[in-house]
Hints:
globular; disordered N terminus; mainly alpha
Amino acid sequence: MTDVSTQPDPVATSDDDVAGSGGLVGALRSMEVDTRLIGMLGALAIIWISFHIWSGGTFLTPRNLWNLSVQTSAVAIMATGMVLIIVSRNIDLSVGSMLAVVGMAMALLQAEILPDIIGFDHPMTWIIALVLGIALGAALGAFQGAIIAYIGVPSFIVTLGGLLVWRGVAWWMASGRTIAPMDSSFQLLGGGSRGTIGGFLSWVVAVVASVGFVVLLINGRRTRQRYGFAMRPLWADATIGVIGVGVVLGAVGYLNRYFLPPLLARQRAEQEGLVWPEGGLDIPLGLANPVLIAIVVALIMTFISTRISFGRYVFAIGGNPEAAELGGIKTRLTTVKTFALMGALVGVAAAVQIARLNAAVSGLGQLTELYVIAAAVIGGTSLAGGIGTIPGAVLGALVMQSLQSGMVLVGIDAPLQDIAVGVVLVVAVAIDTFYRRGST
């Protein structure tokens, strides 16, 4: 007879036991890490390393990654809204064309309408243009959402029509002209050498973000303990905290190695009364304003989707529309609000885009809807509805922009770039399908 006392205890009694019980897989399970997130990070690492080698050591330089972060911002902003659209079992194919309309409207306000009323480069110009642009985007989104919710036309058809209509409206607004320049203060929204917060403030943002991340981990642990939920091992929370803080500080430190060109650095030194040394000054640009805007939008959208009733209603509708209706959720009004929110985010992205270009053209935002939808899907948002995360969409936007920027950097032809993006989108949907089957 086997002595029971000699058998190993099947229940781990300490953090060390939990860590060692299943190797790497067990550790990831203990930290409750989404396997799809690990896959996305692995894909991003492969893309970065491959293009770095292919480009002869150019891709992973501070300058290129700084530009990559700016280029990712507009898509990331819209992808956060697309998550809620897809989660609610809808789709929005019109975001690129709406971007053109809203961008053209804001450009006309700054270049032709407001100067005749309050003068050019008035301190209120950029505020008026930004507020009206966001309001216009929200109105366009709500209009499409109302047709979908109250008339019953499928979102695919409504937004496909919007893709064509708004593109035509954007051209009609300026008869195909390029509208420029933008207000000097408005231009700061687009980044560039002036649209940054500098090295010191970037470190301040990094430290605040790191402290906030640690506080969230501690509060989450206390909340689980208070309500008797399953607790992650202490070593798992500590590991997540160290990795998160390390990524934030490391990213800011690396981006701060991108310095102003000598001529601009000398101009900055003269403006600030700094003594120009013989060897010159290394003045870091720091985080660009579009990146900060995208981070703030992602935080707000995460709060909306996880902490307030509207976000929970959207996920409930996506999980089971009939049950949500029977549960008292105003599904039609929620749908209109979701599309209005998407339109408002398009307004923010349009401001970033035209500020960065210092101009608006009728072709603005072409194929942007493809990148926005792909970013959301690659980030783990299920086209079947009910599943999706805002951080995943932001990471998906970074993956998509890395792929596009890398192909441009190594000189791949535009048709081949479109082929690559299309293949990535289909593969992402296929992976999502297999993942859902496995979960079921």
